[in-house]
């Protein structure tokens, strides 16, 4: 049997009984030293699944301000292991991913890793389009997620598009984590409407802080520049569908690129709406 890594896997959830057991099974029993579930008041069978698998559950109640769920965990329940991985319930670890982690985590010069995820749309894996990447694996104590003061303007109790701000060199894991979200188009649209509202609120508050862009990655800098124009939607479509091969997925690729372009256009419109409201005050 392989020795478990000095790694805590934190799984933030709320009503994830349909996905959670599969996520836990994919982790396995000899990969991570500890698994912890961060729960936001689940009312389904999620907690029974945690209990059946003898997994510790931390109950998170958000007061609408900083910190949100992931930073709360890092600050108030700091893992005793060397590494922490934040994993959503619809993200399943592959054997190739776990093997690559075992090799790369030995590098003492790295403090974190960018992870890559598969993407599914209309029931099938996507071949093209923008890759889904997150900085979700890092050394405990190397940093935490961006500090964004919300003061009750969001309904999202967990860091969504915030990146961890780490001190040190960051590597990349090439093997993909399977992102198996099959909750349908209605869920996708509702979720992205919430994300768009958050992105717009965040942007309007960020431009008031002249120094915050020093923490941005180059991708974030391009994104926030484009957010100030209605070209952000078309720009995403052109990049996703043509430059990054979304056309390889046929009609699904076209529909997905249109939906995502609409999402970014929605962010722009919500930003303009917030500016109008602010000018009226």
From TrEMBL:
The keyword Cytoplasm does not apply. It holds the Pfam family Glycos_transf_2. InterPro entries: Glyco_trans_2-like, Nucleotide-diphossugar_trans. Residues 8-123 form the Glycosyltransferase 2-like domain. The keyword Glycosyltransferase applies. One of its GO terms (molecular function) is glycosyltransferase activity. Keywords: Glycosyltransferase, Transferase. Its EC number is 2.4.-.-. It is an enzyme of class 2 (transferase). It comes from the Bacteria. Belongs to the glycosyltransferase 2 family. WaaE/KdtX subfamily. This is Glycosyltransferase family 2 protein.
